[in-house]
Amino acid sequence: MSVGNIITQLAAIETGIAGIKRAYDKTPDSLSELPCFINFPVSGEYIRDPMRRVVRHTIRAQLYVTRSDLLSAEAQLRPFLELVFNALDADLDLGASCDYHRITRYDYGALIFAKVVYLGMSFDLEVSELTSATFAK
User: How far is CA 69 from CA 48, 79, 87, in A?
Assistant: First the structure.
């Protein structure tokens, strides 16, 4: 398991959400198809006890929906909230790339990519990997 595999599996799940045209596992140069997701790691935590290792990654999934006026953009954006929750709840191990994940936060509003303002959402996922380990004494 690696953070790269986790993000690739997350993008595969997002691509299956109705209405999503593209999901990136690496930051693209530009956004040519909307709505789309961009996924990237933002932080992590390493926990060790005598018998196992726990690595928790925070992955940010940013959903870029539109550049249109606020009223029509908001109407396009709102249905995605429930669709994203349902898609991620249906695959708690992200295609067997981790042991467990959960959405810890979401934000709704303006996102900026390449100096362009979009309306979208940002989801923070806490992704946990549990492994047994033998540590040197």
Answer: 49, 17, 28
DSSP code of residue 34: S
Our measurement of the distance from residue 104's CA atom to the centroid of its chain's CA atoms, rounded to an integer in Å, reads: 11
Write out pLDDT tens, residues 22-77. Answer: 999 999 999 989 999 999 999 999 888 777 888 999 999 999 999 877 677 778 88
CA distance 132 to 57: 18
Give the N- to C-terminal CA distance of the chain in Å, as an integer. Answer: 25
In tens, the pLDDT along 55-66 reads: 999 999 999 999
Of 29, 57, 26, 23, nearest to 42 by C-alpha is 57
Measure the CA–CA gap between 46 and 97, rounded to whole angstroms: 17
Lookup result for tokens 């249906």: 90
